[in-house]
Amino acid sequence: MANVADKPLVHEDDLLIEEYGYDDHFHDHHHGDKFQSNFVTTYFFSQDHKMIAKQFLITGMFWAIIGGLMSLVFRLQLGFPEENMAWLKPVLGKWITVNDAGIGSLAPEFYYALVTMHGTILVFFVLTAGLSGTFSNLLIPLQIGARDMASPFMNMLSYWFFFLAGVVMFFSLFLNTGPFAGGWTAYPPLSALPQASSGSGAGMTLWIVSLVFFVVSVLLGGINYITTVLNMRTKGMSMWRMPLTIWAFFITAIIGLLSFPVLVSAFLLVTFDRSLGTSFFLSEIFIGGQALDHVGGSPILYQHLFWFLGHPEVYIIILPAMGIVSEVLSVHSRKPIFGYKAMVYSILAIAFLSFIVWAHHMFMSGVNPFISNFFVIFTLIIAVPSAVKVFNWIATLYGGNVRFNSASLFAIGFVSMFISGGLTGIFLGNSAIDIQLHDTYFVVAHFHIVMGVAAFFGMFAGIYNWFPKMYGRFMNETLGKLHFWGTIVGAYAVFWPMHYLGMAGVPRRYYRFDSFAAFGSFDLMNQFITVAAIITFGFQLLFVVNFFYSIWKGKKMTDRNPWKASTLEWTTPIEGIHGNWPGKIPTVQRWAYDYGKDGKDFIPQIQPVGADESKDEH
Amino acid sequence: MTALFVLLCVILIGIIVVQIGKVTELAGKIRGEEEAQERTNRTQAGYSMIFMIVFLLACTVSAIYYKDSMLWYGPNESASAHGSSIDYIFNITLFFTGIVFFITQILLFYFAYKYRARRGSKAEYISHNNRLEVIWTAIPAVVMTFLVVGGLDAWNDVMADVEEGEDYIEIEATGYQFAWHLRYPGPDGKLGARDYKMISATNPLGQVWSDEKNLDDFHPSEIVLPVGKKVRVRITSRDVLHNFYLPHFRVKMDAVPGMPTYFVFTPTTTTEEYRAKLGALNDRGEPQYPEWHAPLDPEDPEGPTKFEDFNFELACAELCGKGHYAMRRAVRIVSEAEYKNWLSEQQSYYESTIKGTEDDPFASEAVEEEPELTDASPVEGDTPEGEGSAE
After folding, report:
1. Do B74 and B202 fall within a single domain?
2. Do B245 and B105 belong together in one domain?
3. pLDDT tens, B8-62?
4. What does the buried/exposed string (b/e) look like for A370-384 if buried means 16 or more CB atoms within 10 Å of the residue's CB?
C-alpha cells in the first residue's frame, strides 16, 4: 500500500484530459455518474463493450476447450489405433463401440464427426468470435477514444447470436445420428445427402442453422466495428494515428462483412438442394441403391461460394492477431512499430488480395487448369505484404529495450509461427506442388501453424497484455511464461512432423493409415504427435487456471498504465467504468507509437506535441 | 484405478505449479519489481536463444532423418514423367524458403535476446527506413516471380490434355462409397457411354449397352499400365466427391459426380524396377533403405520383405464419408509385352455378365443366333484372346 501514497492524488493523464479533452456532456443524460444497471444487465444482457468482450472471450475459451478435447480423442485414434478406448465410453457413449473382447474403438463416422466439429468450432467459434469478437469489442472504443460502440444494443445482439449459434452446435453433438461429419468445409454432395453420411441428416441441418446465426453475429458485430471506427474516433484521432490493432480490426470487419453473406448464400442453396429438390450442387448421383433425380448442378459451384468466404476467413482470423502482435511488440520493445505505414498498406493489400485467391483451395477440384494460373499469381503475391510484415516485426525488436513477459513472449512466438507456417504456404500456393501436397498432412501442418497456432499466440499475447484492462488485475507471470514455453515447444512438436507425413504423401482425414503401405509406416511419429498434443493441451489448461484464478486473486493493478503504453485505453481509470472516461473524452495529439522519442521512454497520445520536439514523418 | 491415480497426479502437479507461480510473484515483490523484471529479461532472453538453437537443430536433424520419405530424396522418387518437374519445383521452393526460414528465425530470437531490457539501456527511436523497406519488399517479389514462373510452367505442362492424334491409353476410374471401380476401353480403345439412371447391381457404372463401344469394356480389379505410355485417366464419381490420388505418380484429381475430370500422365518406372530400387544394396553390400528390408509381417521374419511386396497404390484424397480411408486399389506398371498379355486375359464385362440377360439390347438377336453360337462354341472360348489380338 506504500506505493499508493507515493502516487500523486490526481493522475497526470487526468490533468491532460481535463485540459485538452473534449466535453461531450456525457453525464448530463444520466443524472450523476451512476449508470443504472442491475445484475442481469451487467453480466448477461450487457451493452457495455468491455463486458461483451469478456463474454466473447470466455465463451471462446469454453469452445476452445471442447474443440481441443475433440482433437485429443481423434489424435488418440491416429496415434494408438489398437488401444482400448472403452474408458471413454462414459463420455462418448455409442461413439465408442466395444467388441466382444471388451476392446473399445472409436467408430469411423464419429472420428469424422470429431474432425469436422474440431474444425468448425476452432475456425468460427474460437478464432473468429473468440479472437476478433473479444479484442475488437474491448479495444476499438478504448483505443479510438469512444464511450462505447456505435450501437451498443446491436453489439449485445451480436454476442447473443453467437451464443445461440453455440447452443445449436452444442445440441447437435447429442443427436442420435451424430453431428455433421463431412468436414468443416461441408462440400456437397456429402453434406447434401443424408444417405451419404449419418451426420448429413439432422446434424447438417443444425450445423447450417448454427452457422447462419453465427454469420448474423459476425455481421452485427462487423457493422458496429466499422461504424465505430469511421464515426466515433475522438478529436485528433485521424486514420493515420490509429494503432495497428484498430486498423486490423477495422479491415477484418470489412472483410467479414463482404465475405460472410456469400457463405450464407451457399448454405441457402444447399438447404434448397436438401429439402426442396433443387439441383444447384447435385448432378447424376446414384446412392443408397437408387438414382436421384438431380441433374445439372455442380458441386464445384459450392466450393467457389464456400471459399469466397473461406479464404478471406483465414485473414479474418490472422489480421486481428497481427494487429495485436504489432501493438504488443512495439510496447514491450519500447520502440515504435517499424514501418507503420508499410504495416497499414500491407494489411490493406492482404485484405484486397484475400478476395481474389479463393480458388487456390480448388486447384485439384476439377476447375479449368487455365483459371488456376491467375489464382497462383495472386496467391503468391500475398507473400510479399506478409514478408514485409515479418521483416517489420523483426526490425521492431532491433535496437529495442525488450521487456520479456508473457505478452511479449507470445508476440515473438507469433512471429516465429507465422514465418514457419507462412513459408509452407508458398509451396501450397504454387499449383504444381499442390498436385502432390493437396489434402495431405502438409496442408494440415501449414494451416495449423499459420492460422491455428499463430492466431492463438496472437490471442494469448492480447489476453496477457490487456488482462489488467479487463479485470484490473494481472495474470500470474510465472505461469504465463511456463504456458508460453510449453505451448511453443508443444505446438512445434505436434505440427512440425506433419510436414514429413505430407511430403511422404499421407492424406489428411484418414481414420487409420494401415490400409495403405505408402501411408502406414509412420506409427512412431503418429504416437509422438499424439503425446505432444496431450501435453500441449495440458499447458492450455494451465492457462485457463491462471485466467480464472487471476480474475479474483491476481496481483492488483496499482498503476493505470502498467506497460507504459502511449495508447488511449491506459488513460482510463483502473476500474472500467461505463463510458470509459469519467469526465471529458481525451483528444489525440500524436500517433500511437512515440516510444523512445527524444530520449523519453514514451509519450502518451494525449500529450500535445512540444515546441522543442523533433519532427518525424513515421 | 490407474486413471484416477494419473488424474490425481496431474491435479497435484497443477496445484504445485500454481503455488510456485504465486511464490515467484511474491519473491519478485520483495526483490523490487524493476530488479525482478531485469532478472526475468535475462533468463527469458537466454531461454529464447536456447529454444532457437534447439528448434533449428531439431528441424535440420528431423529433416535428414526423414529424408527418405520426402519428395525426390531417397526412394520417394516420382514414378511418372511429369512427377520430377513437380519434385523439382518443390525442392527449389524448399531451398529458398529454407534460407528465409533460418535467417528470419535467427534474427527474430537473436534480436529479442540482444536487445533485452537492461538497467540504464534505452531503445533507439527508429520508426522506419524507406530504403531498407524497398529492398525487403523487392527481394521477396523477385523470388516469388521466379517461383511463380517455374511453377506455372510445370503446371501448364502437367495439366495439358492429350493432343489430337496422340497415342495414349484411356482408362476410367469411378469413385463410389467406398471403393474405386475401374474400366478399360477394350480393343476398340474407346470407353462406351454411360447413363447414371441405368446403374444397377449388374451394371455398376450404368453403361449403356446399346452403345457398341461398351461391349468390349472390361472392369479390372487393379490398374495395370505399360511403362512409358501416355495414360489419360477419366475420373468420375457415382455419389459424392472423391479424389483419384496416385502418390507415387504425383497424380491427384477430384472425382466429381456429373462432371468427368481428366488427368494425363506417363508412368516411367515399372513396379519391378521400383521394388528393385527400394531393395537396393549400397556399396558395402548393406541395404540402402533398411526400413524396406523389414519383413512384411513382423510375426514371420522369414516371409517376404516390405520391398518385395511393394505396390503402387491408388487412394482417395477427398473426404467422402466414413470409409474414406480404405479406398485402396493396387497399381501395377509393367512392360509393354506383359501389358499386352494381361489385356488378352481380360474379358469384357458385357460378355461375362450382361450378354444374353434381359439387360442386353442385343438379347433378341442373341436368342435367334443361339444355335449359331452353340456351333461356334470353341470359337467363343477363344474370344478373349481373339479380342486381345484383334487390334
Report:
1. no
2. no
3. 888 888 888 888 888 877 777 777 778 888 999 999 999 999 999 999 999 999 9
4. eebbebbbbbbbbbb
Q: Is the pLDDT of residue A29 over 70?
A: no
Q: Which residues pair with A507 in a beta bridge?
A: A440
Helical axes A299-333 vs A454-471, angle rounded to 10°: 50
The residue among B69, B116, B238, B306 with the most chain A CBs within 10 A of its CB, best to mutate, is B69
- Distance of alpha carbon A218 from alpha carbon A207, whole angstroms: 16
**pLDDT (0 to 100) of residue B181:** 96
Lowest mean pLDDT among A92-96, A306-310, B221-225, B264-268: A92-96
Q: Which residue from B minimizes the CA distance to A299?
A: B256
Could you tell me which of B318, B339, B314, B338 has the C-alpha nearest to residue B222? B314
Q: Are residues B255 and B357 in the same domain?
A: yes
Instruction: Give the count of Cβ contacts less than 8 A between chain A and B.
Output: 381
Q: How many helices (H) and strands (E) does chain A have?
A: 19, 4
Question: From CA A307, how far away is CA A326, in angstroms rounded?
Answer: 28
Instruction: Note whether B53 contacts A: Cβ–Cβ < 8 A.
Output: no
Whether the CB-CB separation of A191 and A208 falls below 8 Å is answered with no
Q: Map grid coordinates 489405433 to a residue.
A: A81
Same domain, B88 and B204: no
What is the domain range of residue B79? Answer: 7-118
H or E, element range at A310: helix A299-333
Smallest CA–CA separation between B140 and chain A, in Å? 6
**Count of domains forming chain B:** 2
Write the residue in A366, A398, A430 that is nearest to B259 by C-beta. A366
Pairing of strands B329-334, B223-226: parallel
C-alpha span between A309 and A128 (Å, rounded): 13
Shortest Cα–Cα distance, B50 to chain A (Å): 11
How far is Cα B161 from Cα B235, in angstroms, rounded to an integer? 13
Mean of per-residue pLDDT scores for chain A: 92
Q: Phi and psi of B264, rounded to 5°?
A: -110, 130
The minimal CB distance from A403 to the residues B10, B41, B137 is found for B41
- The Cα A437–Cα A236 span in angstroms is 50
**In the structure grid, which three cell numbers stand for residue A467, read together?**
488482462
Q: What angle do CA B360, B364, B370 make, to 5 degrees?
A: 100
Which residues on B lie below 8 Å from A432 (Cβ)?
85-86, 89, 151-152, 154-155, 158
Q: Name residues 200-219 of chain B within 8 A of A (Cβ).
A: 206
8 Å CB contact of B241 and A541? no
Grid coordinates of A257: 462483412
Which residue of A297, A391, A402 is in closest CB contact with B112? A402
Cell digits for A192?
447434401
**B145 in a structural domain:** no
Query: In a 3-state reduction of DSSP, which class is residue B79?
Result: coil
- B298 and B216 part of one domain: yes
Shortest distance between the Cα of B316 and any Cα of chain A, in A, equals 8
Residue from B9, B65, B155, B162 whose CB has the most chain A CBs within 10 Å, to mutate: B155
The reply to whether ipTM tops 0.90 is: yes
- Domain containing B294 — which CATH number? 2.60.40.420
Identity of residue A27: H
